[in-house]
Amino acid sequence: MGSAFRLSIWAGPSYDEAVNWCHSKCLNTYCAAASAETTHTQVDWTTGSALLLGPESDGFDQAELELAGESVGIPMAGEVESLNVSVAAGVVLFEAARQRGFGKTS
After folding, report:
1. Enclosing domain of residue 27
2. Residue 53 belongs to a domain with what CATH number?
3. What is the DSSP track for 43-58?
4. pLDDT tens across 27-83, in order?
5. Can you give the pTM of this predicted structure?
């Protein structure tokens, strides 16, 4: 079974509610943004972290980026400007899993 059947899902919070909840849990909160100077591999994902993904059309506005605190991007090659939001999520979350030792055998 997929993880959707094992994880709690919080549907319908506003952006502010989601960011404030992350901050109340002392999570390092990152917005995915094409304009970010920090890449997804430069972040320490081994600590409590939250990744916020915005709309594919426009992404986050400046106020939303500032509210979260930090932005993280995925380096693009050539003329590629961005990735589909689900692909971007997969790339970043795979890096987080890799840093946490996913797939290593003892």
Report:
1. 17-74+82-99
2. 3.40.1280.10
3. S-TTSSEEEE---TTT
4. 999 999 988 999 999 999 999 999 999 888 888 999 999 999 899 999 988 888 778
5. 0.84
Token pair belonging to 52: 């916020």
Q: How many residues are given for the chain?
A: 106
Q: What is the radius of gyration, based on Cα positions, of the chain?
A: 14
Write down the residue that tokens 């059309």 correspond to: 57
Hey, what long-range contacts does 89-98 have (CB within 8 A, 24 or more apart)?
Answer: 89/32, 89/51, 89/53, 91/40, 92/32, 92/40, 92/51, 93/51, 95/40, 95/41, 95/43, 95/45, 96/45, 96/49, 96/51
Q: Count of domains in the chain?
A: 1
Query: Is there a contact between 73 and 36 (Cβ–Cβ < 8 Å)?
Result: yes
The first and second tokens of residue 73, run together, are 């991007």
Residue 60, amino acid: F
Bridge partners of residue 28, in order along the sequence: 49
